[in-house]
Amino acid sequence: MPTPQMLMLRLLTTITALLLLTACSGMQLAYNTADFFIERYADDYLGLDSAQMERWSPRLKTALARHREEELPYLATFFDSAQNDARKGFTRADVQCLLDQFEVIYRRHFTLAAAAAAPLLADLDKGQIDALQQRFREEAQEDAEDAARPKAVRVSKRVERYTDNMRWWLGELTPKQRRIVRDVAADLPETASWYAYRDRKRRELIALLRGGATSEDIERFLSDWLVDYTDMPAALADSQVQLRAGMTDLLVRLDASFSDAQRRRLIDRLTGLRKDFLRLQQSPRMAPVTC
What we know:
mainly alpha; 79% helix
């Protein structure tokens, strides 16, 4: 099962993050201005000229309109399920159902993001492709430097990241809760193999762009990579299973330690997001839950 920290092109990550907008305190304002921020990011990352932006902007607006109509019900359902589970206490079956729902949301969002990004990537000129390749090289170097750090340092950073995330949802963690986060995060799969896979796929994307690929070719490539995982190495598929098990263990173990105030804060966060994703729809509805 894919996770938010895996397999992201920076452009697609930003588009999708702004489409998802989970955990955003200014939800409606951010959502209603997403086209502006996505355009600004794409311009900064790819160095677009005015003609390229003019050609792409209508496609982006179409994608965002489609997102509002088709994808917001899935997000509302996800947070509705999560707040119901938080009220009664998370079981392993509950978490597995939430992860199944997230799988559907992930695939739907990245299908839409691939369709939105492909025309823009197909429109890049040689200089822009050169610049994109250089950015990919710089980011690959950063990944290599991260992978080369001692394991204790990598684990410490991972624990810090997960602790910060939990703090947003729950408030300050107790020493026991911090130990739970540390124990689970320390056993999660390492990222070096993910870095290598991402670097390979970026190189393939650059080769595709240099070969004059059509928008349809690029969309197919992005979907194969980010949605269907058609050539994902078996070891990475196995690590996704391990990661899913780790996330299940983390939430179930933390749930047993929640104070009343923490549970209330979590419920309020989740309920607020459900309301936001319903409010953003013209005809509010939730998608069906199949698990």
